[in-house]
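User: Please predict the structure of the protein below. I'd like the answer in structure-token form so I can feed it into my own downstream comparison script.

Assistant: Understood. Taking the following sequence of 213 residues as input:
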Amino acid sequence: MPFPTTGVLTGFVTPPDEHPVSEGGNWFQVAGGATLQDLAKNSGSLQNPSVTPAGAMYWTPLSLTDTEVFASLVGTPTDSMAVLLRLKDVGSGSTWDGYGVYYFPGTPGQLQFHRITNNGHVTFATVTGITLVGGDGLGASMSGSTIRAFTRSGASGPWTQAGADQTDGTYPGPGFIGLWIRGTGRWDNFGGGAPVAVVTASFDFVSVPARVT
């Protein structure tokens, strides 16, 4: 299936530097972690100035069941980076729930599918042999109980699905999308929303006898 079908929501360039990032109330901190900073004056990116502990923010305008989320890496990450989906209970202490596709750098790195319950993470699938560097993209989609991970090589390369479809029905939705950072990695060009149906047309050609005059 095509991915993504939605556009970029922010490139972190319009407001002045914000800590924590807000962009007019569009971002809010997931409870129980570090706050993330919008470096609008640094070519536009989102970073974790604390490095540790990890920090997560969610995009407040969208709370969806079927959803997709994606972003681009700025620089090669030193620790885990993630795109988050169907986040719930995001403001109630450290008891937030939802899903995330996490990238862990290594030689090579790997993707992990996480179910998050009360800020505790359970890995229910892993895709090995994944290496992401600056300019690459990470994304995920969720439809019903099916979650998919996607990666993009370079700023303009095609998106490809990483690993097989995974399923988990613990949190049927709706929930928010967001981003996670641990370490010195940075995000740019965050996007997502409700997937847009892609219609393909098919044509039936009918042979018509030649007309003789």
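That's the full token string. The chain is about 0% helix and 45% strand.
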